[in-house]
Amino acid sequence: MNINREQVDALNAVIKIAIEKNDYADKVEKVLNDYRKTASIPGFRKGHVPAGMIKRQYGKAVKFDEINRVLQDSLYKYINDEKLNILGNPIPKEKQDINIEADDFTFEFEIGLAPAIEVNLKPKKGIVRYEITVADDQIDKQVERIQKQFGKLVAKGEVINDDSLEVTGTFFNEEKSIDTQATFTLEELSDAARKEFIGKKIGDQFQLQTKGLFKDAHSLMHYLKVSHDEAHHLEVEITFTLEEVNERQGAALDQELFNKLFPDGSVTTEEQLRDKIKEGAQHQYNEQADQHFLNTVTDYLVDNTKFELPETFLKKWLRTAGEKELTEQEAEEEYTRSEKGLRYQLIEGKVMEDNNLHPKFEELKDFARNYIKAQLAQYGMPTDDDSYVDGIVDRVLQNREEVQRIQQQLVFKKLIEFYKENVNTDVKKVTFDEFVKVAFPE
């Protein structure tokens, strides 16, 4: 066997593989002999079928399979041995006529090579990284929500202007076959619809418009039992009969409530409850701020790290990479959609390789262990039994999909930490509302 590479340019090459008879003949002979031992052909005892007959019936197919196996094995061994950083997969060159009767064969494969990349992590203008602070009024609102959630319902005879007030009644429209009972809060209603409810008493019937009834049109699906399309296009008058009005009175901030929220007894005062709420909110805010920061760094790196790609090769590869062959136009569109992701994938790989960020197995195992302990603690389960926790970790790491998911989370964590320490940043402290306006502009 002879393998060589012809460099077309910096990003494209052709691998030529010459396979000779002695590369495959022994294996073909062995497979045919095995067939002869097990073949059941009328007129011959098992294991006594003439070798010539076996060769005539199966010889070409076995030879083809073995040549293909040798070809694939040698191709990818060569790529690994030569440490070629290829993009996509090798593509057989077109118009290679193969005569299966021949003894020697030559195959050619086109490959696309990853470019050399230089990553600049020190922009002149620092990349903005937001630190979201938890405002006292947010904690106040969460305490109030908790009190409402664990409080008790007190029946009222009239609708008053209170977000948490719950009303129960029946929606009716004969033409649209709507006749459903629903319970919802005033907070879910649009401002215009809320005005129609204020002052109404038990037993009152009044007309409402389905369009703009709730702040979220999808609420119609749940409360009126209509389809998704109907929820967005329904514009009819509907009769509502008020049957119940309930005010949810907040639960007292006492040990009974604290124990419901934290069965481990870690909270005994309102101050400790507020600290727990702040801690949980801060964790969520940090995750959102980190994701935004990573997205911003990603955009910067893709926009400012210039390199060429083997574009023609990649488009050709995309045409045949999937289950269904794409047209040239479809491959062009797919390349346009995936180019940014490919560029960042190469940049990220370069950053991780240069800075030894690829997760090691022990890191993966420790990360999984900490994640599982956090999940157990969240449900009030003990986390100090190491053998129990390690048993769960071992089972999780036997699931390929779980391993990939955990690995992605670990890579995310390592990249965030690395970028925070090594990218020029401009840290800005903001409230959550300020962050939302910047991160998700309308």
UniProtKB/TrEMBL annotation:
SUPFAM superfamilies linked: Triger factor/SurA peptide-binding domain-like (SSF109998), Trigger factor ribosome-binding domain (SSF102735)
GO biological process, one term: protein transport
Matching Pfam families: Trigger_N
Record InterPro entries: Trig_fac (IPR005215), Trigger_fac_C_sf (IPR037041), Trigger_fac_ribosome-bd_bac (IPR008881), Trigger_fac_ribosome-bd_sf (IPR036611), Trigger_fact/SurA_dom_sf (IPR027304)
Any one GO molecular function term: protein folding chaperone
Annotated ranges, domain Trigger factor ribosome-binding bacterial: 1-146
PANTHER family in the record: TRIGGER FACTOR CHAPERONE AND PEPTIDYL-PROLYL CIS/TRANS ISOMERASE, TRIGGER FACTOR-LIKE PROTEIN TIG, CHLOROPLASTIC
NCBIfam families found in the cross-reference section: tig
Protein name: Trigger factor
